Predict the structure.
Amino acid sequence: MTKFKKLSKARGVTIPKDIAAHLDFEAGTAVDLTAADGKLIISKHVDTCRFCGGAENIKLFGDVYVCPICAARLYKEVCGS
């Protein structure tokens, strides 16, 4: 599914309703923007561990997402046990 859109003066773009519905993007959906091979890739945001980049069992601690393995390593480093 391809549509032609122009960037706004602020360099923004609106995702057409039919494409957003097809991708299950609701208003307010967090997205990741990736530039690759001259293309812009827009995908749903997935929280990942700040330290290893993993995406399983991620927990938010303060403003940092961390996985259980990295949390255990961090605890060991900080607490020494």
The first helix runs from residue 17 to 22.
